[in-house]
Amino acid sequence: MEESMQSSGPDIFRHVTTTPRHDWTVDQIRSLLEAPFLDLVFHAARVHRANHNPHEVQICSLLSIKTGGCPENCGYCSQSVHHKTGLQVEPLLQTEQVLSAAKKAKEAGATRFCMGAAWREVRDNRAFDRVLEMIRGVNALGMEVCCTLGMVTEAQARKLQEAGLYAYNHNIDTSPEYYEKVCSTRTIDDRLQTLENVRNAGLTVCCGGILGLGENQTDRAAMLHTLATLETHPESVPINSLVRVEGTPMQENEEVDPVDFIRMIAVARIVMPKSMVRLAAGRLQLSNEAQALAFLAGANSIFAGDKLLTTPNPEFDTDLSLLHSLGLRGKTLETGIEEPSIAVAYGS
Questions:
Q1: C-alpha dist (Å) from residue 175 to 29, 163, 187, 217, 218
Q2: Residue 183 falls in the annotated catalytic set
């Protein structure tokens, strides 16, 4: 039975329930983003505790299997051929290299292994066949496998699923209205079509956005609205803060206020109660206290290790110490794999 949460704070919280709904409006979500901070965190924490174990955090590892040379012109990305960031373009890794990294990640405690390739889209060629081979190999290790490879057709998504892929990551980045200011080589409709293809193929969806791209508050609300009104909410929602990379058009963008970042975490938790809300890029810019607030506000997943594809991330020992100090532990997967307290991300 749906539980209403009307107990305290501004009138906007009358819309908050502990069960998923798909009829949020942009105005309602913006009102949540602008609500008194402590009231917002309080209500988000209640939603979180009604749907998740507040002492568990899902730990993910991440590997760039093909770095640089992407033909897209996303204004934030170090891997775009349109930007002079000094990044060295590297070919697709060999399967043996990927499996070696996956084994090391598993030995370090990882149970979810994510692979990213700087492609605009998946093509049916030998490179894709090698990725399928990588997925089969990582899956055989008893690990949960996630990929982000750009746009995919439904047929390609089915091949990924048949190979043993568990989740597909494809972020929408920002609002539909602001998207063309971030990227002009594809549209947000292209992004949404990939999400539909992935869902139709039976894969779980990992999809979120990025703060600090020059968007306004309505754009942030509209980004969350796009995800929260999907027929099925993404199982994983990464919330990123822009990592400013020299050589990109957004290198001078204003840094995101940690309080605004935590507001996004809290509202994502409220409008998508059962999703895993992930602290993703930009976590290095958050203090331990800010990260603790983010966990209280509903974040329950992180990437651990010193690198996220090509950008910095908190080091392994730092994450281990923080989680231990907060009394948090790694989430045990539904597959029955026992997950230790932390896992390493292996960047290229």
A1: 13, 33, 11, 10, 8
A2: no
